[in-house]
Amino acid sequence: MPLQQPVLSFYRDYLRQIRRLPHHYLRQFFRIKASDDFRALVATPAHRSQLCKSKIRRIYKDLRRIKLALTGRQDAFSFILDLAYGRRGKLRWELMEPLLAQAHAAPSLPEAMIRSEPNSRPPVYSPELSALLINTASRTNKPLELHQLKFPPTLSSRANPISEEARLIGPLSKRLELNIRWRYFRREWKKVYPPLEIAVKGNGELLSTSVSDVSHAGGRILKSQDRGILEGMEDVVGPPTAGTLSTRRERLLFGVHQTLEGSSKQRHPSRWLRRRYQALLGRLPLLILNPNSKKPSFSVGLPLNSITPIGRNAAHRRPALDFANLAWLQRANLLDKQRLSKKV
């Protein structure tokens, strides 16, 4: 397809809207995406007009979402965040692909279920994928139980040769069992949020996401490992608790400046933008590798400054105890003791 003037103006409009995005990672991601989409549009043969029109509609739909996000539409902005950070779209598959490839390349593969077909092996759940499937923080819906990975709930009890149904009706067909297991595997991994990084638990419960530490502990290196993506999001959000402003009397008494207590780290001034990124962090699970165990064991956690329904009232989200609240707490405890002594 030749580069016509409407396509060029469409591309320039796309780039103008991208420059208005509030974070450098978003600008970089959509700049690359716009380049790939318009190159694919230009490379479309002229005789395939329907394919060309569908590509233009898809690009226009993305541009319309960006414009709505820039006007303050919460659903549109959450959509482009999910698209840029791999919660949906092509990047989501690219982030999940190493975990799925690890499941197929396990060191001890199971035997083929059909002897005449060596490729008829059931799916293997890697330790990383198993941890993501059974944890609430990494699932879009209810997490799975560990026994469901070995025997899917969609599989008939006839697959167990010692079951009552297998003795009465007969065992289940191996080909049917194989198809059910693979269908369940493909359905369930699509309900998982892919992690951006793997962290190694060190001394003092400190986490390290550097490539050297993860490889030294025997963990897998993900494509987005140690790229600074999570750090960039945390710079926007700021610390888990923002602290409180000191009063004028406190500043005069202690000689402090009007700064947020306990928050030396900067954050974005827009509260609306911080809230959108905090909600996104609640959909970004962090795989935590425990190097002390004999076999690689993984747990799943979320960043402390994320917002989720289950962690909204967690202890780490409460502000630090300052001297004023401590004085009120001590006075309340003293009054309680006095009331108890009077009753006695």
UniProtKB/TrEMBL annotation:
<dbReference type="Pfam" id="PF20263">
    <property type="entry name" value="LYRM2-like"/>
</dbReference>
<feature type="domain" description="LYR motif-containing protein Cup1-like N-terminal">
    <location>
        <begin position="11"/>
        <end position="96"/>
    </location>
</feature>
<dbReference type="InterPro" id="IPR046896">
    <property type="entry name" value="Cup1-like_N"/>
</dbReference>
<protein>
    <recommendedName>
        <fullName>LYR motif-containing protein Cup1-like N-terminal domain-containing protein</fullName>
    </recommendedName>
</protein>
